[in-house]
Structures are given as C-alpha cells and as structure tokens.
C-alpha cells in the first residue's frame, strides 16, 4: 500500500530534499505505517536558514500589534480545525480522542493567544543619569530553534512558537520523528493567517537534524523538550556559539496524600497523574506517597476505579480513555521497568502486562499498573518510566515525606492533598519542584509559568516571564552634555 509522503516545510511551502532519505511513521494503535516523511538534508537545512533570515527581516520589522493581529488569526484557525488536528494527534501518538479533542489543540491555541495578547505590552525603560539618560529596548534574539518530544506534538510546537514569534523572532522547529505531522499543519495555518514565509519553518528528522540545529552558528536560542540525557547533549552542542537554552525535561514527581485529604479527590489526581495520555506526561506523579492511616482506603478506591473505569482500545473510539504507547520499543521499555520492579520486590496490585484490546489488537498497549510494597531505592521509584506505571509508597510523618519526595535529581512537579491550608503551603514551599499543585493535579493554563528544578529543566514555558526569555535587552546611552575627555 502506498502512503502519503510529507516534505519539509520551508519558506511557506513544501520543499523536496535531494538525498531521497525518508522515514516511516506508524500509528501506535495499529502498528501500520500511515505516512512517510522526508529527512531534512543539507539542501533543506541551508534553505531553512536562508528563509529564516529573510523571515526575520520582515517579521521583526512589523509592529508588535501587527504581529499580534496575525497570530490571533492563527489561533482562530487552530480552533476552527480542532477536530481535524486532534485526529492527527491521535493517529500519530496513540492517545485517546477524548483527550486530544478537548486538550491538545486547545491548550496549544491558548498559549499562542496568550502571547499574541502580550506582544504589544513589551516595553523598555528610560532613566536619567545626570544630564544624560539611557533607555532600553527589548529586541528579539533572531533565529531560534525548537525541538519537540512526541507526547504532545502540536501543543509543544504551539508552546514554543507562541512566545518566540510574539517577541519578533523566527523559529525553525523540528518535531519528534515519531510525530512529525502536527507541526506541518501548524506551519500551514501560520501561512494562511498571514505569518510571513520563513518565520516558522519545519525541518524533519531524528537526532542528526536536531544536532545540526543545536550547533548552527546562526541560531541564537534552542528551546528543547525531551529526555534529561538528550537535554544535556543539546546544552553541550548549544555551547558551541553560546546559544540561549530552554530545557523542558523529564520528571519523577511526588504526590503526597495526607491523612486529612479528600481521598476520592486524591485518587482522581493519582489516576490522572499516572494514566492520562497512557502515562506519557512529563509532570506525572509517579511516586504517590500516602499517609499510613489512610493507605488502605486509598488503595481500595484506587484499585476499584483502575480496574473498572479504564477502557483501553481504538483511541479514536470516544469511550476509550487509555491509548497505545508511542512505539513497540517504548512499550518494551515500560514492560522491562515493570519486570525490574517485580524483581526488586515491589508487588503488582493490578496491571503489569501488555494489553491487546479487541478494537486495537496490534497496538502497543500496557495495562494501567499499580505497584505497592515499594521502597525509595527501587529502580521504578527512581527513574522516569513514561508509561502507565504508578508506585505507591507509605509515610508516617510530614518532615519524613518532604525529605523522601525531594530525594531525586529531578524536580519538575509535585502535588499535595490535605484540608489543612497551612500544611499545604508549608509543604509545597519545601518541595524542590517547579510546577506544584495543591488539591489538584496536572492543569497547566497558558498564564502559569511551567518548568523544572534541578535536572528537570532550565527556563520556563508559558506565563509572562517566557516572553522575556525570547528577547534581549539593548541599552542605549544618550549623551546630552559634552564628553569630558582626558585626551
Ligand atoms: P527525546 O529526548 O528522545 O527526544 C526529544 C527530541 O530530541 C526529538 O525531537 C529527538 O529527535 C531530538 N533529539 C534526539 N537526540 C538529539 C540530539 N542529540 N540533539 C538534538 N536533538 C535530539 O525525548 P522523547 O522520547 O521524544 O520525549 C519523552 C521525554 O520528554 C520524557 O523524558 C518527558 O519527560 C520529556 N518531556 C518533557 C516535557 C516538559 O515540559 N518538561 C514535556 C513533554 C515531554
């Protein structure tokens, strides 16, 4: 069967490569190749840079309000095409339609809308110095690169392009080679909305194309979303010309359930933070610490709801709420972690195996898995698994649980469930994590800055401060009196 072939998207149109190199993309729920994509070879790479330079000339010369107006049009198109784009995300990622339909496109559009609104608010300052004065200008950085992960492909492309473009930069975006189509659709939407050619180019490929972006001397910043190990490599290459970096990396986040918590709410949070998007969410609370006095009732409800309320199957079926993992290889990696958990003495309360649902028998599914009898030194408790695998741990004391929660090199997110308002804030303030929730888990509105402590990241996405991270300050000193020269 022949499948469609997508080329790179450069300067407002598709551009053929000369090497002929392509890669295939499979639907994780069917194991079938659904399309192929051309790799960005040297010809495409060169064209992408030339186009970005031209795009920058035009885009950075526009007033912020003009840029804002155009970006708002793109937002409207994203919302208009919600279902079409959501379907692409389902076919590429294997995630359930019921999620993609209301989250992926909308949270992407929200962020572009937010930064489009902020664009005209960026102001410099002015200050007298004796008779002279100086003023500052917020100027764009120039050509930026975005490199995305595969779990929220379109959302990531929007979260990086929104602030970059709003501040007057141009972006060359490389989506994950597992999920390359959403970014192309976004590029088409930008062009349709009136974003000039060259402002948002999409280059395709895996690590090699990523490395090219991170070492290119004319790229001023790289915003990366992916694994901690890859992030370190990206930072190393970005040092070649001292690029600015934003790093959105992995996590092993704690959820702490105190004895006075609303237990049903805490169970909801634990399930959302482990099984939503079949566990492939960076902020997941994969270490669930439960106070000993409520451990058993918490587990009883968790088990009951996990065994009765989760429906795995064809992700396009609106009743399905557990999709397929991104690839066969990733499914195996998750199953290997489960084996390791068992070998190290943890007990599987439920799940712990691959699934082959009737409506999607060849998909890469893993049953929602809950481990109990865990201790802090187990591999499953220490390493990011990125699948539907939750480890439940028992604690007795507030200070003890804070120390245990912080005992990791990662620090992306954390959650606390308690009715005690003082304890909620006291504990959260002591947790080394960038994104925290009290009596809630997972919501990430455009207005709220998100990013990691420790090895979970550098810089932030969303929120006002992110716009600043896409600008540089120019100070202009203006002499009003004669220069006093000793020469
Ligand atoms: P990954 O690190 O394998 O790949 C991410 C991207 O980097 C891909 O586009 C890949 O092609 C590219 N890449 C690979 N090697 C490269 C190199 N040497 N130089 C430049 N680019 C390179 O990550 P993944 O498996 O796609 O995504 C899962 C990871 O992403 C998880 O660890 C997850 O926690 C993390 N993540 C973090 C956030 C966040 O906001 N903090 C959000 C989503 C995912």
Sequence of strands across the biggest β-sheet: 15-18-19-14-13-21-22
Compute the CA-based radius of gyration. 24 Å
Strand content: 15-25%
Contiguous low-pLDDT stretches (5 residues minimum) are none
Largest sheet: 7 strands, mixed
Helix content: 25-40%
- Separation of termini? 80 Å
Report the strand count: 25
On the 0 to 100 scale, the average pLDDT is 98
Helix tally equals 16
Describe this structure in words.
The chain has 487 residues and is of the alpha/beta class. The termini are far apart. The protein has a seven-stranded mixed beta sheet, sandwiched between helices. Strands 10-9-8-11-12-24 form a six-stranded mixed beta sheet, sandwiched between helices. The protein has a three-stranded mixed beta sheet with strand order 1-5-4, with helices on one face. The chain contains 16 helices and 25 strands. The structure holds nicotinamide-adenine-dinucleotide (NAD). Nicotinamide-adenine-dinucleotide is lined by residues 147-151, 174, 176-177, 206-207, 210-211, 214, 225-227, 230, 233-234, 248-251, 282, 384, 386, 412, 452, 457. The site of nicotinamide-adenine-dinucleotide has 29 residues, from helix 8 and helix 9.
């Amino acid at each position: 069967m022949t499948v469609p072939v997508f080329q790179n998207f450069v300067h407002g149109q598709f551009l053929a490569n000369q090497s002929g190199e392509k890669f295939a993309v499979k639907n994780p729920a069917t194991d079938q190749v659904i399309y192929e994509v051309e790799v960005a070879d040297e010809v495409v790479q060169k064209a992408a840079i030339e186009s970005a330079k031209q795009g920058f000339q035009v885009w950075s010369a526009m007033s912020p309000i003009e840029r804002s107006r155009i970006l708002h049009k793109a937002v409207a198109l994203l919302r208009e095409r919600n279902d079409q784009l959501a379907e692409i995300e389902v076919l590429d990622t294997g995630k359930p339609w019921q999620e993609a339909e209301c989250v992926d496109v909308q949270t992407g559009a929200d962020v572009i809308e937010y930064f489009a609104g902020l664009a005209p608010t960026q102001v410099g300052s002015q200050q007298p110095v004796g008779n002279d004065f100086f003023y500052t200008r917020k100027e764009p950085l120039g050509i930026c690169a975005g490199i995305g992960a595969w779990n929220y492909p379109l959302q990531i492309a929007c979260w990086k392009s929104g602030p970059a473009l709003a501040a007057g930069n141009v972006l060359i975006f490389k989506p994950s080679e597992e999920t390359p189509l959403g970014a192309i659709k976004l590029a088409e939407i930008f062009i349709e909305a009136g974003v000039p050619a060259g402002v948002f180019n999409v280059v395709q490929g895996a690590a090699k194309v990523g490395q090219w972006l991170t070492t290119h001397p004319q790229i001023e910043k790289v915003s990366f979303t992916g694994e901690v190990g890859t992030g370190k490599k990206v930072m190393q290459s970005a040092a070649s010309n001292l690029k600015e970096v934003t790093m959105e990396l992995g996590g092993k986040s704690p959820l702490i359930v105190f004895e006075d918590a609303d237990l049903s709410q805490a169970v909801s949070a634990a399930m959302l933070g482990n099984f939503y998007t079949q566990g492939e969410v960076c902020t997941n609370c994969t270490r669930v610490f439960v106070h000993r006095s409520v451990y058993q009732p918490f587990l009883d409800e968790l088990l009951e709801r996990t065994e009765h309320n989760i429906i795995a199957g064809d992700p396009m079926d609106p009743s399905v709420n557990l999709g397929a993992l991104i690839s066969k290889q990733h499914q195996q990696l998750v199953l290997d972690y489960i084996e390791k958990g068992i070998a190290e003495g943890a007990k599987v309360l439920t799940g712990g195996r691959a699934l082959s649902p009737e409506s999607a028998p060849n998909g890469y599914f893993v049953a929602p898995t809950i481990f109990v009898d865990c201790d802090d030194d187990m591999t499953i408790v220490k390493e990011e698994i990125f699948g539907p695998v939750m480890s439940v741990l028992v604690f007795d004391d507030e200070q003890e649980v804070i120390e245990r929660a912080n005992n990791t090199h990662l620090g992306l997110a954390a959650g606390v469930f308690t009715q005690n308002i003082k304890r909620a804030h006291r504990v959260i303030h002591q947790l080394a994590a960038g994104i925290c929730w009290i009596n809630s888990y997972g919501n990430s509105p455009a207005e709220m800055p998100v990013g990691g402590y420790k090895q979970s990241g550098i810089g932030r996405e969303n929120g006002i401060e992110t716009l600043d991270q896409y600008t540089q300050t120019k100070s202009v000193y203006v002499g009003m009196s004669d220069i006093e020269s000793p020469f």
